[in-house]
Amino acid sequence: MEDDMPNSLFQQYSRLVYEQCGINLHEGKKALLQARLNKRLRMTGIDSYKEYFKFITSGANPGEFVNFIDSISTNLTYFFREAQHFDFMNRVGLPELIEAKRKQRDVRIRIWSAGCSTGEEPYSLAMCVLAHLQDITKWDFRILATDISTRVLETASRGVYSEEKVKKVPPALRHAYFRKVGGEDGNSDFQIVPHVKRLITFYRLNLKDPYPFKGPFDFIFCRNVMIYFDKKTQEELVNKMAGFLRAGGYFCVGHSESLTGLAHKLSYVQPAIYRN
Ligand SMILES: C[S@@+](CC[C@H](N)C(=O)[O-])C[C@H]1O[C@@H](n2cnc3c(N)ncnc32)[C@H](O)[C@@H]1O
Hints:
Layout: H1 7-21, H2 30-44, H3 49-57, H4 62-72, H5 83-104, E1 108-114, H6 120-130, E2 140-147, H7 150-158, E3 160-162, H8 163-166, H9 171-177, E4 178-182, E5 188-192, H10 194-197, E6 200-204, E7 217-222, H11 231-242, E8 245-253, E9 267-270, E10 273-275
Parallel strand pairs: 1-2, 1-7, 2-6, 7-8
Antiparallel strand pairs: 3-5, 4-5, 8-10, 9-10
């Protein structure tokens, strides 16, 4: 296995990643890319970065191309991450939405978790909304949860999390929406109950590709995803996603992200929250 990657090859990888998924791999990410690639080289038995590049770009190995994208994406997430968003949903977003829907005799509620990683975000959103809907049978409530990585989507669809991970879930919600199941080494794991799981549709979607649905969504959460994209890609994607938001719908980004400096039609509500 190679120790170092020539800069010209790093540029080729960097361009490929940018063109395919919008992620900006600058020079400082070379060591990270190599570490992630080493694992793929071991798994495939290919012994150089150059050969691996040819292998994934030849068009003959689409499965390994997906594995490559999976290996370079950063998937950190946790339940109820960025409490300010859930606080806003509880205080403003959901009461306002439910009131408006009641007046319009509209029972449809749609949320999109774009870049959902291993599922903690859409499940947290489902639990948050359920607390506001007195009789779920009267509502047509669904969450669409998408990610470019098939690996994280498998975990998300299983909906089974370690005790450590569910510690972030408020106890009342943990009791209501998780069931204990046997985990590894005698530890318990926690499984999302079926009636919450059923509210969510998980599928693979590269945000740079055309979106095969119509919306409109009442809320779009695209948090800690665009941080890896350059300004041009961020601007394109924000405008594209905003086109799937209903009038008055909310768009949430991560608190370390911001739409400042991007041309878009959304109005600023508070840090990391925008409105159509
Ligand atoms: C750091 S996680 C954020 C998860 C969650 N939204 C949160 O805030 O906790 C970023 C996710 O974005 C996904 N991602 C990166 N580029 C993407 C793209 N072009 N299209 C769709 N998802 C992408 C990654 O696979 C990863 O799961």
